[in-house]
Amino acid sequence: MAIRTANRPRAILLLAALLVALGAAGWAQNANHPNESPLTRQFHQALNLAQHGDRQEAMNLVLRLLEQHPDFVPAIKLKGMLLEETGRTSEAAAAYEDALKLAPNDGDLLLKTGIYKLSAGQKEEAIKLLKHCIRILPGDGDAQYYLAQAYHLNGQDNLALRAIQGSLKAEPDNISVWQKYGELLCGTGDCNAGLRWLLKAQRSDAKLPRIDYDIAATDYKLMDIAGTAQYAARAVQSQPNDVTSLRLLATANVKLGKWQEAGNAFERILTFKSDDVESLLGLGQCEVELKEYPAAVDKLQSVLRLDPTRLLAHFYLSRAFAAMGRTADAQHEAALHQLMMEQMTFVRSVASEERESPIKAQARQLLEEHREADALRLYREHFKGTPATPADAYVFVGKLYLFMEDTEDGLRNLHHALEVDPKVRGAHTYAGILALKNDDLNKAESEFSAELANDPNYQTAIAEMGEIRYHQGRWSDAAEQLAKSRTTTPELLYMLCDSYFRLGRVSDADLTAETIAAYGRNKPELMKELVDLLLRNQQTELAQRLSANLAQK
Questions:
Q1: Averaged over 470-496, what is the pLDDT?
Q2: In angstroms, rounded to a whole number, what is the distance separating the alpha carbons of residues 188 and 196?
Q3: pLDDT at 299 over 80
């Protein structure tokens, strides 16, 4: 969701606030005759000039005033407003922030500074300022509106919905608020109600910024693909260079089987972003469906040069090659697509580790500060309401210790996890990985076997058992275990490729080599070893092709 302006006369409100602030300020040099103060007269003169459009002279007066009285808040606020009106937004933001330091409970300054913090991506700071603003000005619809945006961008959609409801209560006839309310209703799962509010806003003002896109996106979530295409086309008509709208239009037309229209939209995106992988892939698919096979091959091969892990590119290449009579190439691409699809099951098996990612850095910092109990508590809080167990927390902390080269504390936590729950997942595996790192194959095998006794389908343990078999020179067993694991780890795939070559399974080795090139493309040393492996096994053409692809990157 982009940060949008509420289209409200905030400048007029700010001028009014300046007058109020001036009346309340203790800056008059003669308290008994405030209207005779030179400071007051100078400020009123600058304010009058600003109200009548003479911004430059108003700014000159304000700057002279601030030279004499640098802490005069109304003048700093007026300076910020003048800077803002002339497009000098970063300077305006700095002025408002300076004024806020002097007047920390000024509602308008809290709002202005909060909006600028939000625009700068400082969501937490924006939320803090806007909440403070609402405490000062409980009925301020603007503050609620921008607080809703800040919450949404911070991933707190329920709080965002509550804030926009507050804005709607404060300003029930504000069309911009209707639009935002509809957008957030859909974002929290009530797309039918959200669509009603979006359509109400659109009927009241068809020129609202991005209203057609919001309706199209909501239609898409409601699976009204024809409606999506209709409103996305209107969004593109009003903003022809908007890539987001073009992408939604292309996606809708693909689902409707309108290949030419979809292809046109993808081509327009590529005029702005020539290396956009999604658009190249989408255009390649459209060209396959339109039977423009050579063009499709060109686009799809470009996709794989940019991102070799795009599985659908192999699928559509197979179709294009088959239609062109290139049977061997078609079969090769189909086999590669099938292999990589199977490997994706391994990616899904590590979903729990991905869920740990947001807390890893903080947990590691806690461990470095010798706050192990806090790290365990952090894990439990993060996974509250999930099937994660207390033993899982100890596995998490144990493996972090191992990554930090703290073997003693790592093993202590892994062993404690097994005491809490002898069948906890991962404890034996990470202990086995440590043993493997220390070249203790027997210990490693014992740990992996114990893991697999608890969970025969734990793919990490299966892959590591394959690595043990590889180091033992048991090529058939190594190939079986590594292939069964569906691993996408480039180093393990290298062992699988080498095992296939040693077993004489050249075609399987070649396919595996291509998956290594996809998943290990950012590991130059490994890629060099792969090319050497191919050359040693007389796979010169494949080695040259992979080398050429890497050189292009």
A1: 95
A2: 15
A3: yes
Report which of 69, 11, 78 is spatially closest to residue 45, judged by C-alpha positions: 78
Q: How far apart are CA 233 and CA 426, in angstroms?
A: 50
What does pTM read for this prediction? 0.72
**115-164 pLDDT, tens digit each:** 999 999 999 999 999 999 999 999 899 999 999 999 999 888 899 999 99
Which of 103, 123, 150 represents a domain boundary (last residue)? 103
Instruction: Please say whether the beta carbons of 76 and 102 come within 8 A.
Output: yes
Phi, psi torsion values for 311, nearest 5 degrees: -65, -40
Q: Does the structure show a pLDDT above 60 at 18?
A: no
* Number of domains into which the chain is organized: 2
Minimum mean pLDDT among 52-66, 171-185, 271-285, 463-477: which range? 52-66
Q: Is 81 helix (H, G, I), strand (E, B) or coil?
A: helix
Residue 122 region by backbone torsions, left for phi larger than 0, else alpha for psi between -120 and 50, else beta: beta
CA–CA distance, 144 with 127 (Å, rounded to integer): 10
549 in any annotated domain: yes
Please answer whether residues 138 and 125 qualify as being in contact, where contact means their C-beta atoms are separated by less than 8 angstroms.
Answer: no
Evaluate whether 164 touches 6 at the Cβ level (below 8 Å): no
* Domain containing residue 96: CATH number: 1.25.40.10
Q: Which residue intervals of 383-489 are DSSP H helices? A: 390-403, 407-420, 427-437, 441-454, 459-471, 475-485
Range of the domain at 532: 488-553
Q: Which two tokens stand for residue 214?
A: 């919001």
CA dist 199 → 155, 173, 196, 451 (Å): 25, 15, 5, 56
Helices 390-403 & 427-437, crossing angle to 10 degrees?
A: 20
Place of tokens 């957030």: 184
Q: What's the Cα-to-Cα distance from 268 to each of 166, 261, 368, 398, 545, rounded to whole Å?
A: 40, 11, 51, 51, 31
pLDDT tens column, 82-125: 998 888 999 999 999 999 999 999 999 999 999 999 999 999 99
End-of-domain residue from the set 51, 70, 103: 103
In-domain check, residue 363: no
The alpha-carbon radius of gyration of the chain (Å, integer) is 31
Average pLDDT over residues 282-296: 97
Q: At what angle do helices 390-403 and 351-368 cross, to 10 degrees?
A: 70
CB–CB of 246/231 below 8 Å?
Answer: no
- What is residue 208's DSSP assignment? S
Query: How distant is the alpha carbon of residue 255 from its chain centre?
Result: 25
Distance (Å) of CA 500 to CA 108, 163, 503:
70, 60, 5
216: number of Cβ within 10 Å: 26
Q: Tell me if 418 sits within 8 A of 424, measured CB to CB.
A: yes
Residue 8 falls inside a structural domain: yes
Percent of the chain with pLDDT over 70: 91
SS3 207: coil
Contact predicate 239/208, CB 8 Å? no
pLDDT confidence of 38, banded at 50, 70, 90? confident
**Residue 530 domain flag:** yes
**227: pLDDT strictly greater than 50:** yes
